[in-house]
Design brief:
The structure holds 2 protein chains of 2 kinds. Chain A is an alpha+beta fold. Chain A has helices spanning 152-156, 161-170, 188-203, 210-225; strands at residues 13-16, 20-21, 25-27, 33-36, 40-45, 48-53, 65-73, 77-81, 88-91, 113-121, 127-130, 143-146, 173-176, 181-185. Chain A has 3 domains: 13-53, OB fold (Dihydrolipoamide Acetyltransferase, E2P) (Beta Barrel); 65-138, OB fold (Dihydrolipoamide Acetyltransferase, E2P) (Beta Barrel); 143-225, K Homology domain, type 1 (Ribosomal Protein S8, Chain: A, domain 1, 2-Layer Sandwich), CATH 3.30.1370. Classes of the chains: A alpha+beta, B alpha+beta.
């Protein structure tokens, strides 16, 4: 039997008293108690109680690495889809190349996939992104899949244990963006297997002892397929 | 034509229910893979699918609210959902229901977390048998939770009314058409805040409050079913997984046999 973590639904009582509501929780002003606002796994951390959501959209935070897709080109900036409810702006000053005014499309054009960093999120959720950092680049080759953004930490694993496991077993280049997009590049068969493994992790994200089970699964499938 | 008797001497209704009994409810969470959240509900013979998209950039742009998200609801009845073919597309009735359901949901969602966005709720009635706005709202509440949208509580809805001079909960088609009054309500079960209330027909003040109390209890029952359905979705995956594990062992066994041979 696989153990599942306790799951709460919106409106469920989490705690009462001094503890503060973190993400996925709120305090009702009428009775002062704390209730869940999302479907997820409750987690107490110091003086906060959070609900780690099981589903939901990606909300960008500064300094997160994400995989974006260029959706529009303007003379001095690009509009990037970062899988958030809001479009992001990539200004020519924030790219590693020297771009003349009006020559933006020479460097990045629509449907290009880029690895970028969220540099600023304003109060009104206007997002600015940057490519000026080590390893930030345009992806050439490989493929991009999308998973639930809320499951990204699970796919990465504690100290990257989960994704290192997949990489080690299948010899595929994988990069995971915080926004739920995953870029993979490698030999066809093993890439397909890696995608299957990631989907499996996504599906079973709320269970315990997952790394060990994925290890078994990889072990089994590797011997079958190679 | 003789009037149909909707409640017999023993107080039973035409389908054998008592005054406070609900029709059987079956809920399936996340039947659609493309939508962010979805729910299929069977409530008596009502069959409804609700889907949720978003939060996403509000379109058309003039509807954007710089301080909060807007909830847009689209209630639609399939042409085959009623006895006589319904002309497809929006009409007066469905526009009204879309509006009231959208406003009810907007009061349950924590809209201030997603400024300038839109949450789109689609309610598609596949088969109708009275109380579709309540059924649709109940399904939409589950679909919103499934989409991971922050809410104060999952809204639950139920209709009631007066039939043959008696107060009853959850009307079916015959009772709705031949009855004296119809009162659909939607509440937040935890605080019993009312999100939606419409009334058709006549009720005395005493009857109204009596029915309101019955409906609040019914909504709380429905809320329990909603919660159970949401939690069951993650339990079901467990069962599937167990099956896979046993299958995996079988293939292992086969391999061992092969090696032996």
């Amino acid at each position: 039997m696989v153990k599942i973590k306790e799951i709460v639904v919106p409106g469920q009582l989490l705690d009462e008293g001094e503890i503060k509501p973190g993400q996925g929780a709120y305090r009702d002003r009428a009775d002062g108690k704390i209730y869940a606002s999302r479907l997820g796994v409750p987690l107490k951390r110091r003086d906060f109680i959070n609900v780690i959501p099981l589903t939901g959209c990606y909300l960008p935070k500064p300094d997160e690495l994400v995989i974006g897709i260029i959706v529009d080109v303007a003379p001095s900036y690009w509009i990037v889809d970062v899988n958030a409810p809001y479009p992001a702006v990539l200004h020519v000053n924030d790219v590693p190349w020297k771009v003349e005014f009006g020559e933006t499309s020479k460097y990045l054009s629509i449907a290009d996939v880029v690895l970028i960093k969220i540099s600023r999120v304003s109060e009104t959720e206007q997002i600015q992104v940057s490519m000026r950092d080590r390893n930030l680049r345009k992806f050439v080759g490989g493929q991009v899949i999308e998973i639930q953004p809320t499951k990204v930490p699970r796919v990465i694993g504690k100290k990257q244990s989960m994704i290192e496991l997949v990489k080690r077993y299948l010899n595929v280049w994988i990069f995971i963006g915080k926004n739920g997009r995953i870029w993979l590049n490698g030999e066809g068969k093993s890439t397909r297997l890696a995608i299957k493994a990631i989907r499996q992790i996504e599906k079973e994200a709320h269970t315990e002892g997952l790394t060990d089970r994925i290890k078994e699964w990889l072990e089994m499938n590797k011997s079958e397929n190679m | 034509m003789e009037k149909i008797k909707l409640i017999d001497e023993k107080g039973k209704r035409i389908d054998g229910r008592g005054a406070k009994d609900l029709r059987p409810i079956k809920i399936k969470v996340h039947p659609l893979n493309r939508a962010d959240g979805s729910c299929y509900i069977e409530w008596g013979t009502n069959k409804i699918i609700a889907s949720v998209y978003g939060p996403k950039e509000a379109q058309p742009k003039h509807l954007q609210d710089p301080l909060r998200a807007i909830v847009r609801c689209n209630y639609d009845m399939a042409s085959f959902s009623v006895d006589e073919r319904k002309r497809p597309g929006p009409d007066r009735r469905s526009s009204e229901i879309s509006k009231v359901i959208g406003e009810a949901l907007e009061n349950a969602v924590l809209t201030n977390l997603f400024p300038r966005t839109m949450i789109e709720v689609n309610i598609e009635v596949l088969e109708a048998d009275a109380g579709t706005r309540c059924t649709g709202l109940t399904a939409a509440g589950i679909a919103l939770a499934d989409a991971g949208i922050p809410m104060r509580d999952i809204p639950a809805a139920c209709a009631g009314g007066k039939v043959d001079g008696k107060i009853v909960v959850d009307l079916r088609k015959e009772e709705d058409q031949a009855g004296d009054a119809d009162l659909p309500i939607a509440i937040l079960p935890r605080t019993k805040e009312i999100l939606l209330m419409q009334m058709d027909g006549d009720l005395s003040e005493k009857e109204f409050y009596e029915l309101l109390d019955l409906l609040a209890d019914a909504c709380i029952n429905i809320s329990e079913m909603q919660k159970k359905a949401l939690l069951d979705r993650y339990k079901q995956e467990e069962d599937v997984e167990e099956d896979k594990e046993t299958k995996g062992k079988k293939t292992e066994n086969k391999e061992i046999k092969k090696e032996e041979e």
